[in-house]
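Memo to structure team: turn this sequence into structure tokens by end of day. - J.P.
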Amino acid sequence: MRFENPFTRVERLKRVKNIPSAQVDERVPPGQFLTERFPVLHYGATPRYVDLEGWTLRVFGLVETEKTWTWADLMQLPRNTETVDIHCVTRWSKLDTTWTGAPWREFITHFQIRPEATHVMVHCEQGYTTNIALDVLDDDDTMLAYAYEGKPLEPDHGYPLRLLVPKKYFWKSAKWVRGFEFIQGDRPGFWERAGYHMQGDPWQEERFG
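Reply from structure team:
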């Protein structure tokens, strides 16, 4: 399988001319179309897991003690279900999507973040990364999601675990998460290096840097 160069993909997206002339719904950010589908968009092949026996999630960087979670560990955390709207930088929006997972605020009570940490670099399968500020993650609807519409995530949508950050463009809701690196200051991840915006607020149309 051939994959489009990410820099080429971003430049192509910048040239899109099929843009809504007016906001289609008060819940939909400017420049977005509504869809009932759930488009699959990612770079690279979809990881496949026979089982989760050897799966781990690493917490490292600016924390007092690094921690490695097994899938069984993660399943011991309290879970929450949230219904949220999601918005992709490629201009689709989907309303009333329902996710289940471990709330971010609960997750971070199980280790101590050092006071100089300001951001998280999310590390995923195949070397994918994305950057998010800690104050952005500090919200009721941010979670480590492992179920969508009452069922385990499909592989193309991030099975077994993805981050859910509904207030940002959906590339920040990284699929196939394997680690959270706590860092001081902001630095770009995979798509940010290719030209996407560092923050990615859909209401501000922060698509490109």
